[in-house]
Design a protein that fits this description.
about 240 residues
């Protein structure tokens, strides 16, 4: 079908924001892991006194934060290799808008793993698998803007008016969430140049009142978090991404 120019512009802008949000979240998560890995060194130095217990709690409340919950942009999108999953989703979600059910069926007919098993191109197959996961997640959570985005990529007809109704408000919402993530320490730390990390690290510790020496900082900055393979033990320290106890 031929989309109206204004609809094309809105959907393409939304697609850009959608991909930007995924990238921003990955950067935040990588920065959070690396920063918490380094900060855990100072937490371990605190003794078991009641004063230190209070400082540990303060430390955790500051540094061991989490990415704000966002049900609409789950980066771990639903995976399924069984056609029954898509069909059962259609039956169970009775609140979804009729036009969205129709669009979802059309997307599944093109992107379901059973439909693309014979495709030889790896890139095309991965693209269709990604579109299937996004559509499934969007359908289950009634994220119509994501469903429209996938339908647009597959050149599937859309009802008149749904683009303006769904895309614009969700674009604004995603922009706000991106800005909120950029305010988090994890994302900011990710973007600190390597040559400036020691200075920035000291600023963080000073700002929140934690004791340290120059040698401590130099030693910690030299450390590098290495993501270990599943099933292997860490060589020096067991670092947890989430709140330490």
């Amino acid at each position: 079908m031929k989309y109206k120019r204004e609809d094309r512009v809105k959907i393409l802008e939304y697609k850009f924001i959608f991909e930007e949000e995924l990238q921003i979240k990955k950067e935040y998560e990588a920065g959070e892991v690396d920063l918490n890995y380094r900060l855990s060194f100072f937490r371990k130095k605190l003794n078991s006194s009641s004063e230190s217990k209070a400082q540990k709690d303060h430390y955790d409340s500051i540094f061991m934060g989490h990415l704000p919950k966002d049900e609409e942009t789950d980066t771990t999108l639903i995976r399924s290799d069984k056609q029954g999953s898509a069909q059962s989703a259609l039956k169970s979600n009775s609140n979804i808008k009729p036009w969205a059910k129709k669009i979802y069926r059309q997307i599944v007919m093109v992107t379901h793993p059973d439909k693309i098993s014979g495709i030889q191109s790896t890139n095309l197959k991965e693209q269709l698998e990604s579109q299937y996961r996004i559509a499934q997640n969007a359908y289950n959570k009634e994220i119509y803007s994501d469903l429209i985005m996938v339908a647009f990529d597959l050149n599937i007809d859309l009802p008149t008016g749904v683009t303006n109704e769904e895309i614009t408000p969700h674009s604004n919402l995603k922009k706000e969430k991106i800005n909120n993530i950029k305010k988090l320490l994890g994302w900011q730390w990710f973007h600190v140049p390597e040559k400036n990390k020691d200075a920035e690290f000291k600023k963080i510790l000073l700002h929140y009142g934690f004791d340290f020496t120059e040698e401590d900082v130099k030693d910690v900055i030299k450390r590098k978090y290495v993501k270990r393979k599943v099933g292997t033990r860490p060589e020096k320290i067991n670092v947890k991404r989430r709140k330490l106890k």
